[in-house]
Amino acid sequence: MRLTRIHLTQVSAARPSLSRGRRRWVVRLVAVAVIGGGSLLGMAGTAGATFTTNTTNCAGSATIVGTGSDAGKTVSVNANDAKVTMLREGDVHWQGSVPTAIHDNQGDIVIHLGLVSVTAKTWGPSKNASNKVTKSGVARIPSALKLVPPGTYHMTGYNSSDEGTCAGSMDLRFTGSILASPVGIVAVIGTILGAIGIVFAGIAKALP
Amino acid sequence: MKRRGRPVLGAISGLIFGGFLTIDLQILNVWKLTAASEIALPLIGLAIGLALGLTGVIPRLRRSDREARTPQY
Prior knowledge:
heterodimer; A: alpha+beta; 6-stranded mixed beta sheet; 4-stranded antiparallel beta sheet; 3 helices; 25% helix; B: mainly alpha; elongated
């Protein structure tokens, strides 16, 4: 009986394989993707500024007292802070002040979600005929905030008046599990399916 | 015989992968959603998926290949 030995090198030589140039090209592409992604992550690490414009010397602060699932928690935030860890349920005791009275006030607070911006609150124009220099109040955190996925969201706001403008920004951070919200669950499933699709697309198929 | 993958599937899958990965990274507090981060990762995913689909670098193991690779004595 005659034994025949087939070497792996013979098999691979018989099969059409990718050229070195092609492989190098793919490796380069992946390297560029990793470097590009890394630089973007580096860019993302910068925290938001506090006051961008403050010609009226405005000041403000708030104390968030948690209720419901956040009962017992308290968060203090100042207008100078760059970042605040938000509660999802609670009452916001806020106050704002200026050294001298300002008139015809108007402004808004906008939350930026990439290409989409959501206006959270608008006010004015209000004349401030009584020349108030302080204002305070209590606002309840909207119930929709319970559904917001965890993450850091950039918020900007301004108040313009006849005497000047007060504008600033702040990062709102919501903590929690990635699987705690429907958006997070969909995002994880979508990422896994996308990865499977990429791998499947990269599998060589025989073409006549 | 030429071997290559599925570029259209790769491009679409890469776009989906990049888009959802952007949301994942936002939720995991790795970065904030910005116009740059929202566009960059899907484009990178699209490029990787397209490249893998065009080149088909992942080898497909068939029964005949497996048998051929097994040393026979």
